[in-house]
Amino acid sequence: MLKNILFVGLGSGVGGAIRYLLFVFIEQNGKQYIFPLKTIIVNVLGCFLLGLFYGLADNGQFRDHQMVLFLTMGLCGGFTTFSTFSNDNMILLKNGHFLQAILYVVSSILICLLATYLGHVTSALRERLF
Known about the structure:
Elements: H1 2-29, H2 37-58, H3 65-79, H4 82-94, H5 98-129
Helix pairs in contact: 1-3, 2-3, 2-5, 4-5
């Protein structure tokens, strides 16, 4: 049990650090938008990776349960940002950007579900190709 907790904690730290670096990269190389582009990019990428990792695990690509915990609950859990998503929506609503808030909620849910599905599909393709 303690070993599992350590793997999840380590993965969460790595995922959070990668999220921070990606946020900094986007801020330094992009324009400022009312729409919370950084958060949706991170969440879509995280959902794709989660689908990919679980799909690979389902196909027997990971023999080690701790690796699955590290990649899914740890890395993806630390990388994705539901709390930031919620706060971004509160800021949009507070500033009167009601249409952007609705668009953000709907697009985040739909695109993230699609990304998770594509991750699973990608893992299945990998199984067939290799």
